[in-house]
Amino acid sequence: VWMIYNDVVRQLIAEWLRLLPFLGVLALLGYLAVRPFLTKKKQQKDSLINLKIQKENPKVVNEINIEDLCLTKAYCRCWRSKTFPVCDGSHNKHNELTGDNVGPLILKKKEV
């Protein structure tokens, strides 16, 4: 009986060893198929644009009266300005750190 048991165990081990490369390939393919969905969730969280301005509001909206516009005014588009919505040049540091190329929105009043 003991010899039969040893033979069965050896046979099972041999079969598992033969299956190991196939199972490894299946595991790799499964991982590669699932990985894009896992990283997208992380990227979405990391890709927040507004990190600190009016976070208590569901949407940030600023209104500028064009009658009050001087000859030239620069408005922030990087969401890093300490004087938001007016640009303070914070995009320069942001661009340097991230390799981005964001700049301000510049409004000019037509001279007559």
What are the salient characteristics of this protein?
112 residues; single chain; transmembrane helix; metal ion binding; mainly alpha; transmembrane; CISD1/2; iron-sulfur; rod-shaped
Please write out the topology.
Elements: H1 2-46, E1 72-75, H2 90-98, E2 105-108
Antiparallel strand pairs: 1-2
Going across the biggest sheet, name each strand in turn: 1-2
Report the total helices. 2
Q: What's the pLDDT, averaged over the residues?
A: 84
Order of helices and strands: HEHE
The 3D shape can be described as rod-shaped
Give me the count of strands. Answer: 2
Strand content: 5-15%
Low-confidence stretches: none
**Span between termini:** 107 Å
Subcellular location: Endoplasmic reticulum membrane; Mitochondrion outer membrane
Pfam families: MitoNEET_N (PF10660), zf-CDGSH (PF09360)
Main location: endoplasmic reticulum
Cofactor: [2Fe-2S] cluster
Could you characterize the architecture of this molecule?
- The chain contains 2 helices and 2 strands, in the order αβαβ.
- Helix content is 48%, strand content 7%.
- With 112 residues, the chain is mostly helical.
- The chain is rod-shaped and about 105 Å long.
- The relative contact order is 0.09.
- Strands 1-2 form a two-stranded antiparallel ribbon.
Question: What's the short version?
Answer:
48% of the residues lie in helices and 7% in strands.
